[in-house]
Amino acid sequence: IMSTRSGMSNGGISNNKVKYSRVADSDEGYIDLQFKRSPPKVPYKAIALATFLFLVGSLLIIIGSLLLAGSIEVTHRDRTIPVLIIGILIFLPGFYHLRIAYYASKGYRGYSYDDIPDFDD
């Protein structure tokens, strides 16, 4: 490889037109913008679904409890327990996601809207 003394380097680009600036000694290669969090994206559809599950589950738990206690007359007693079980199974995910959404909206540490599955993906 031969070097040229006329200020020309690889490919014939002149070095004397390039301007360089020194990097500060304290610079570690990071900029503050890298670590700035973007505002959280609120998953409205998922929160609406969680609210629906919470309300339907609560209603089924109340109806199942009234059926089991005998406050509502029923001809087939074997159908009261499944209403209660389905109500609990529907209530739990709705309550869980609504709790996360509430704490995330209040800004509690450890809670984020990212913990709620979003349907827009």
From TrEMBL:
* Segments traversing the membrane: 46-69, 81-102
Task: Specify the superkingdom.
Answer: Eukaryota
Q: What membrane topology term does the record carry?
A: Multi-pass membrane protein
Q: Mind listing the GO biological process terms from this record? A: synaptic vesicle transport
UniProtKB keywords:
Cytoplasmic vesicle, Endosome, Golgi apparatus, Membrane, Synapse, Transmembrane, Transmembrane helix
- Pfam family for this entry, one: TMEM_230_134
Q: Which GO terms describe its cellular component?
A: autophagosome; early endosome; Golgi apparatus; late endosome; membrane; recycling endosome; synaptic vesicle
Question: What is its subcellular localisation?
Answer: Cytoplasmic vesicle, Autophagosome; Cytoplasmic vesicle, Secretory vesicle, Synaptic vesicle; Early endosome; Golgi apparatus, trans-Golgi network
Quick one: where is this thing mainly located?
Answer: cytoplasm
Regarding protein family, the annotation reads: Belongs to the TMEM134/TMEM230 family.
**Protein task:** Involved in trafficking and recycling of synaptic vesicles.
This chain belongs to the protein called Transmembrane protein 230
